[in-house]
Amino acid sequence: MAQSSNARRKFLVDIARTAGGVALFGLGLGLYSRQSRSLPAQALRPPGALDEADFTGACIRCGLCVRDCPYDTLKLANIGEAVALGTPYFDARAVPCEMCEDIPCVKACPTGALYHQLEKIDDARMGLAVIVDQESCIAFQGLRCEVCFNICPVRGKAITLDMQHNARTGKHALFIPVVHSDACTGCGKCEHGCILDEAAIKVLPLQLARGELGKHYRLGWDEKRKAGGSLVTPDQQHQYNLPEGMRYEYEGEGLIAPENETPFSDNPLDTLNKGFDK
Amino acid sequence: MAAGVSQLGKDAIKAKGWLKAHQWLLLRRTSQFGILFLFLLGPWFGVWIVQGNLVSSMTLDVLPLTDPYVLLQTLLSGHLPETIAVTGVVIVVVFYLLAGGRVYCSWVCPVNVITDTAEWLRYKLGIKNAQTLSRRTRYLVLGMTLILAAVTGSLAWELISPVTIVQRALIFGVGYAWVMMLGIFLFDLLVSRRGWSGHLCPVGAFYSVLGSCSLLRVSAAARDKCDDCMECFAICPEPQVITPALKGANKNIGPMIKDSNCTNCGRCIDICSKNVFRFDQRFNTYVAQQHQAGLTSKVGEGL
Question: Which whole number is the average pLDDT over A64-86?
Fold first, then answer.
């Protein structure tokens, strides 16, 4: 009796000790797993990847996307890398995404960690290109480059050139590349192609690259357009105190005198007495 | 009675010849290396028969296979996988229900080669230590990994799982994963005998639960011929599974090894010079043999 109760006690103590150890280990691992979700900025997920928090649960680290990538863009994170172990990513500066039309990596994913409903690669949002350094981008110095503009697979939509006055020379134009988030897929061709030693344009994960206007903000002109008219007070017709018979054109030549007409009468007295009742 | 153990396998080689005494071991190694080789045909020689890795693969563009343990973690993390992964899991589950859950450990998993090597070296060097983990630990680890997936919403265990790390490393490039391989090897060699595969690994624990009712079993069919040399206990990675089947005749326990932790490795079959063991299906009741042997043990155990 005493013996069996001793054995029972030993059993319970043993299992409690083991369970305690395992639980402690699990706690540490759980904390580590939260940390491992902080994807480094230069690591981009394949097209169609779910949000990072969902992705680390959905991706089973099988590497089928890596195998189906025809350009060896994707790789699996190995031990010692900052990306969650075994998950696929690419470094745009090294090998960018070539944006295959049939998106084989997404099709290969057995779990849907890469979203299977992504049908057009142009709809992929792997990240967003950002001109991170205007000081070194030679376009901002007034030099002609436009490599990022020309290499962009969504040419003319994701990156456009904005012509600005070159204040340094006073007579030339700056061809400033401007990224448009509605078209940029984050493929990284621009970062890969950037001629600088360290790219001035970089593809960043969306959450790093994008700002967001406060939800309470309303842009007056947008609201007015949506409502079809001013919501606050009715627009006042602006009154201009122009000389009689004259018009003013804002985008044109400015003050316009009525044709074949001069505001001045032949009789100088009329001019002098203007405004007084006749 | 344990005299034979010091010369493990000598009697079997004498009785059956070297090849016959290593038959299942050779087949297992062929299976383990063969599977790895199939995965490596693509990256090494450009022959793409199997893509992916042991967690999920696609063979000849038609056969999807997915590890049910990893997919279960995905489900618990709150993600509903695509049909292809579910199909892959069903195929894998059906296979292990037939072949025995822990067939994964002894016939597929490359970590088994590491731990077997450690065990072999341990035997050769005569390393004995008393560091005993409970074999129950692996179920606690299994539970912990599943809870962790549900709580963190990510495959937390897969961040450090030695099994998938080693498998992936062998197929996708080793990198620093050799540290993990060395770690498992040294742990099994110096810290705890059969520590990883037999005590801690949650993958093995999962597959033993999965295969607890599996069809293919090892049976101590000719247990009346047992001469108590104890070699099967010495060689078996889960020796506790043998006892009831081999020694249960007078307790009315059938000769089928039904413990779900039997890995169907066949080492007991190889090592037994008396040919006590053989592969069998679990519902075989041995009516004929029991009568031949003149034993009175209860029949119909499996039904």
Answer: 87
Record: contact A85-B165, CB cut-off 8 A:
yes
Q: Kindly report the CA angle at A164 between A161 and A169, in degrees rounded to 5?
A: 125
Hey, is the C-beta of A221 within 8 angstroms of any chain B C-beta?
no
How many CB atoms are located within 10 Å of the residue B253 CB?
A: 17
Which residues on adjacent β-strands are paired with residue A91?
A: A43
pTM of the model: 0.77
Chain A CB contacts of B134 under 8 Å are 14-15, 18
**Alpha-carbon gap, residue B212 to B259, rounded angstroms:** 7
pLDDT of residue B274: 84
Report the C-alpha gap between B79 and A49 in whole angstroms: 13
Q: What is the ipTM of this complex?
A: 0.79
**Cβ-contact A64, B56 below 8 angstroms:** yes
Residue A26, min C-alpha distance to chain B (Å): 6
Mean pLDDT of all residues in A166-176: 90
Contacts of B74 in chain A (CB under 8 A): 57-58, 60, 111
Distance separating alpha carbons of residues A19 and A229, to the nearest angstrom: 68
User: Torsions phi, psi of A243, nearest 5?
Assistant: -55, 145
